[in-house]
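=== RUN LOG ===
request id: a7f3
mode: sequence -> structure
chains: 1
length: 199
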Amino acid sequence: MTNPGFTAQVALVALQRAAAWDALADVLDEPTPEVVERLRSGELVETWRTGVAWLGADATTVGSPLLSLDVFVRGAARRTAEDDLAMLTAEHHLLVGPDLPAVLRLHDVAELCRDESRAWAEGDLDAGKALRAGQRAFLDAHLVDVLPEVGRRLVQDSRRELWRALGRLLLAFLSAESGRDYQRSVLGESDRRRIDSAG
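=== RESULT ===
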């Protein structure tokens, strides 16, 4: 017999993961004033933090970029929203633009998470498990050939700490969801140690 409390919790986690994927796609899309405000207010950072809470102790792999983004949020009062929008816009076409269609498919991953949540909420364990496996299959089939390179460009080619933190966050999410260490394989061991110590 299925424990309703357990399935309700798994359904909630799937919704939180969906929100985190949508937030990643939103912030990597063409910059807009609305997304910049969500970033400056800390809303997106909290969405990402909630979206990895299910990892427990392993959430520390996402901790360093989130701490960097916390610093960005705390400093927002010293900058204008227009300056932050200009900062994101300046490098977007070089860092994300070449692979923007693939980046926006993160919304498709989020939709699969919402489908999973509905299945768990309805008590359909087989469908919930299949949809969870389907998310990894979707990432493998459509995104892992592209998004690690986007993360690398953000971390290594940007002159702005915000983009570097978002690149590390993208790689951390890909690592958490796929079971592969993209932070290590893409950035290298020395970069990983530097990133971890900078948090």
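=== NOTES ===
The two ends are 44 Å apart (CA to CA).
The chain is about 80% helix and 0% strand.
=== END ===
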